[in-house]
# Entry
Amino acid sequence: MSWEYSRRVKYYETDRMGVVHHSNYLRIIEDARMEWLRDNFMSYSELEKMGVIIPTASASGKFVSYLRYDDEFKVIIRLVQFKGVRMEFEYEIINSVNGQLCYTGESTHFFAVDGNYKPYLSFRSKFPELYQKMCLLHEKDTKI
Amino acid sequence: MSWEYSRRVKYYETDRMGVVHHSNYLRIIEDARMEWLRDNFMSYSELEKMGVIIPTASASGKFVSYLRYDDEFKVIIRLVQFKGVRMEFEYEIINSVNGQLCYTGESTHFFAVDGNYKPYLSFRSKFPELYQKMCLLHEKDTKI
Amino acid sequence: MSWEYSRRVKYYETDRMGVVHHSNYLRIIEDARMEWLRDNFMSYSELEKMGVIIPTASASGKFVSYLRYDDEFKVIIRLVQFKGVRMEFEYEIINSVNGQLCYTGESTHFFAVDGNYKPYLSFRSKFPELYQKMCLLHEKDTKI
Amino acid sequence: MSWEYSRRVKYYETDRMGVVHHSNYLRIIEDARMEWLRDNFMSYSELEKMGVIIPTASASGKFVSYLRYDDEFKVIIRLVQFKGVRMEFEYEIINSVNGQLCYTGESTHFFAVDGNYKPYLSFRSKFPELYQKMCLLHEKDTKI
# Structure
């Protein structure tokens, strides 16, 4: 079972077309990713206190159908790659009421030293338990 | 003559009512205030490099009439108070095409030490020239 | 007992000062007001379906202390005025962990016909039950 | 010569990492695309008045290096595909001061009937001159 995040569309997330502005999907999947981290790994703010951050290296997505104000949606998120310090997530956003697929996307990230924004090459040796946890999460999300 | 800032409404500043979301007026007057600073005083990023920041203490405004996507508008800004480290700005946002008043507001701010967010009590003695400049700007904006 | 809304600060609500950008308080109190409406009155999207909208006429607030990424906060909201079609809400935002007051503000609004943005003068006669409900909510929020 | 859009990073576009939040690159390239339309084709608001809109179908990008508050940048934009009603743009965002590449991305869009959000299949026959103009812009942006 994949992990899910759900909430409703906020008023200020819509634009004059009456639907969620496409830039806000990157914010919505960030919300989902942050809650996934909290639930499965540790909260991002705890990670920051340990001097580790997770910049976004790339993001792409297809805007398949529209979400409107107050629509309830869920984000299905899976950690589809984890190698050393790099990771890739896949997302699907689904309208919770009618089951319609609204967005599919992926984003890549890496563990970095706070204030540096470069891959944290010694992440595995410095944080062996966190590294191990990420491997298990990746395994869980990619097994058939 | 008051100082003016002008630009057009961006698409992502509108909401599903088809008009600028009211929260964005605080962003628009920040844009205007930052450009006022650059033109009359020094750029905010230069100020930050000197270890000085200008937090917002309060803001209020009336949403008089609506701005829509691509509307050209101007922000009239005046420094109506400056005492020690505290300052107050007044704003009017006007539709550049039809002259309609869209927003009136004010905001209060203070000079602070970066990383502290408390009024920079020694601002006048540490930066006598900047202090003097603010006094002159205030005088210019409040003389009848 | 006043009605409360609570959630955590999202990453994209912060700015380079490391705290919630002051414009986002208007979005946070909108979130609170929308949930207050849903819980006490009816959802804003249902109201829109009836052809009624609630534009914001004015808003003001004091930024008392800072909220940072992931801070849990609550918004206390009270309907302090309701006359005909006009209403005023008061807000306090409080850090849920340390009890610190972060923001106090108020906003005024009015019922309007969708697509018109002018006060819905016949609101009371067209929607007598909704009018009555608002009167009761106002009474509840202002009695000592 | 490719068409360019330039401006500075706004304060509220940064996040607590001190850099432009990655979601805002989709807003920045929208700004660029809208100005490209105005300069080369017609303003998006004029297009809307003719009953035509241009939804975003997909977007992807790489966050190569960071932009900070007040950094001046330029967006280079090219119409790399245009077939019937569908179009694809490519973007590069470059720091204007040091020439560093900050972002590369692409987005796909289509002409649609306002209120419908489906490809405007008769766009070519209904707006032959606009169709022809897009073909020329595409030719100009893709010739070696």
